[in-house]
Amino acid sequence: MRVLAVVPARGGSAGVPLKNLALVGGVPLVTRAVRAAQRAELVDQVVVSTDHAGIAETAREAGAIVVERPEELSGATASSESAVLHALDALGEDPEVVVLVQCTSAFIDPEDLSEAVRKVLDGEADSVVSGLPTHEFLWTAAGGGINHDPAVRQRRQDRDAQFRENGAFYVMRASGLREHGHRFFGEVAVQPVSPKHGVEIDNPEDLELVRALAPFIDEPEPIDVDAVITDFDGVHTDDRAYVDSDGREMVLVSRSDGMGVALLKRSGVKVLVMSTEHNPVVAARARKLGVPVLQGLAEKRTVLRDWLTIEGLDPARVAYVGNDVNDLGPMGEVGWPIATPDAHPRVRAAARVVLTRPGGSGAVRELCDRVVAARPEPPAAEVRTRPRLGPVAIGDLLVGDGEPVYVIGEIGINHNGDLDIARRLIDVAAEAGCQAVKFQKRTPAICVPEEQKSQLRQTPWGEMTYLEYKERTEFGYDEYRQIAKYCDERGLHWFASPWDVPSVEFLEEMDVLVHKVASASIADHELLRALAATGKPIILSTGMSTLSEIDAAVETLGTDKLIMMHATSTYPLPPEEANLRTITTLKERYGVPVGYSGHERGLQISLAAVTLGAVTVERHITLDRTMWGSDHAASLEPAGLEHLVRDIRIIEQAMGDGVKRVFPGEEAPKARLRRVTV
Fold first, then answer.
1. Which residues, 6+ apart, have CB-to-CB distance to 265 below 8 Å?
2. Which of 363, 377, 608, 667 has its CA 20 to 30 A from that of 513?
3. 479-483, Cβ contacts within 8 angstroms, sequence gap of 24 or more
C-alpha cells in the first residue's frame, strides 16, 4: 500500500455535540470524509480512528476500516497526529504517504486530495496542507498590520495571494511523520482549494451554513430507491391555492411531473402520495398521475410505517419528499429524506437531498429523473431496438399480429401408439375449427436416459421396460404418411416436435411445413442448429426457460421465420404460474410473433392470452381425460376444444380496431336518450 488516508473522528466535541455524525445534505460528516478519500484516485485505503460506537458503525457502512481509538488519545487535548500514528501501528501498515482527512470539512474535492498526494509521491514536497487563496489584510487586536504595512495600502493585483489553512486535509510522507511527530516537516507545500470547498465546521453556525450550501455544492447523484412517497402541497404544488367565488380550490402543478411519474412507474418504482389534507384536488391529481393517495392523515409517520410493512419495502431504499415540519416524522423513517428548495429550514436540514426546482415547478420531475437514472438498464434494451417482424407464413396461412389466431390441437403422445386414436383426434381438431395438429417425434434409443431404459413399467400392453414402452408408442414412416394424408383430407396442417437430430431428418423426409421446439429442447443447441439448417419456420416454446437461455436459442435459430410460444411447463398449470404478461415481454424483446402453449384445466387462461396478443394457441387434446397416459389429464376433450376455438373467434371480433366511433346499433338509442345542453 502506498497511500493510506486516516480520518480521526472522536465522539467528543465542544463546539457541536457529536459533530462527526451531524448530517449535511442528509449524509453524516464522517461518511462525507470517507467518501471523499475513497474517490481520490491516489488513495489506496481509508481508515477511521474513533472512540465512539455510532461513528464506528457509520464508518463501516461507508466502507472504511475502523481502528478503535484508546481513551488516552480521545480527549480534547489529544492531537490528530497521535490518532494517525496509533492507526498506523494498530494496522501494522507502513505506507509511503499518509493523509489526514478532517470531518470538519464537508466539501472536500477528491481531485484536490489526489493532487496533494501526487506532490508528495513525486518528491515536490514532504508535507502538503489544504489552503484557501486569499488577499485579505490581517490585523492584530492592537491595530498592527500583520501581513501588510498600514502606511502603504497596496492594491489586490499588486499583492501575491496568501493561503489560509482550512483544515480539510494534510498529506505527509509517513516516515517524516514518524520521525518528527507532527504534520509539518521538510519541504511544505500548499494545495489550493476552492472557497466553496473551504468552510470548516467549528460551531453550530458553521454547521447551518454548510447545510444551506450543500444543495448548491454537492454534485447531484442518482437516487437508488424502490419507492417514492411525496407530500402534496408544496411538492406537487407551489403551496398556494386559488379559490373561486364558489369556494372551490384550484392548485398549480407542473405538466412535466406527470411524465416523470410515468417513467418512474415504468421502471418498477412504487409511488404514493400522502397528505394531511382531505381535498378533492389531491385525489384528482393522484388519479391523473395514476398513483395511490392517502389523505386526511393526522400522523403521517405511523401510516408510512404501516404502508412500508404492507408493501414489504426496506425503509433504507425509500424516498420521502416533504416541505414542512409535519414531514419531519416520515422523513426520519426512510433512507432518502428529500426536501424542496423552499422547504422549512428544519426540513432542509433533515434532508439527504435538497432539490433545485420548487414544488409546482418540476420538483417531482427532477426527483423522478434522478431515481430513474439509478435504475439498471432493462436487459432487453439492445434486443428491443430490433424492428418488429411481420407475420410468418406456415403453408397457406399467415401467423402474426393482425391475422386470425392459429389454433393448434396438440395430439403429442395422446394417441398412445394407436393410429385409429390419432385419426379420431385429427377429426376432433378439424371439427372444432383448428388450423393444425401437432405430434412429438423421438428416437427412443437417443432420448431415453440410460438409467431409465431398463426400468420396468406397467402399461396397457403389459409390463415392459421404459425403452420398450417408448418404442411401442412411437409412430414410424407408415403411420406418419397416413397421418399426413388424413390431415390433408381434413384441411389441417400437421407437424411435430423433434427431440433429436435423427427425428429432424425424419420430419424433413415427411416434408412438414414447420418445426416445433419443445420447451425441454430449448438448450439442445445441436438440435437447434439442425432445425435452423432446414430453413423452415420454427415455433419455439419457452417453458422452464430463463431469458438468457431463450437469447441463446434465438441466436442459433434467428428471427426471420421464428414464432415464439409463451409457456409454463407445469402439468396441470395453476393460474398463479401462468404469467401471461410474458407474452408482451417476449414480443418486445425479440420482435417476433408470440403465441401461447397452455397446460391448464379450463379455457379462461388461453382466452386471456388471446386478449393479450397471442397469435397462436396450442392446447393438448384427448378423447377422454381419464385415458391412460401422462398428458391426458391436462388436455381438452372435444367439447372443450370446440368451445375454445369458438370463443377465440368471438374475442377476435370483439377486439376491434381501437378507433372510437358510434356504431350503427347505437344510433337509435342515441337519438332517443342523448340530452345536449349548452
1. 271, 290, 291
2. 608
3. 479/419, 479/422, 480/439, 480/510, 481/510, 482/419, 483/419, 483/422, 483/423, 483/426, 483/439
Q: Are 557 and 531 in contact (CB under 8 A)?
A: yes
pLDDT (tens digit, 9 = 90+) per residue, 477-531?
Answer: 999 999 999 999 999 999 999 999 999 999 999 999 999 999 999 999 999 999 9
H/E run at residue 154:
none
Query: What are the Cα distances from residue 614, in Å, to 102, 560, 586, 655?
Result: 63, 18, 11, 13
Contacts of residue 664, Cβ cutoff 8 Å, sequence gap at least 6: none
**Contact in structure between 501 and 526 (CB atoms under 8 Å):** yes
Q: How many CA atoms lie within 13 A of 201 on its CB side?
A: 30
Mind listing the pLDDT tens digit for each residue in 376-412?
765 543 444 444 557 999 998 999 998 999 999 999 9
Query: Could you tell me which of 493, 439, 435, 401 has the C-alpha nearest to residue 644?
Result: 435
Per-position DSSP letters for 240-309, written without gaps between them? --EE-TT--EE----HHHHHHHHHHHHTT-EEEEE-SS--HHHHHHHHHHT--EE-S-S-HHHHHHHHHH
Helix H or strand E encompassing 5: strand 3-8
Distance of CA 97 to the CA centre of its chain: 41
Query: What number of other Cβ atoms are within 10 A of residue 422's Cβ?
Result: 23
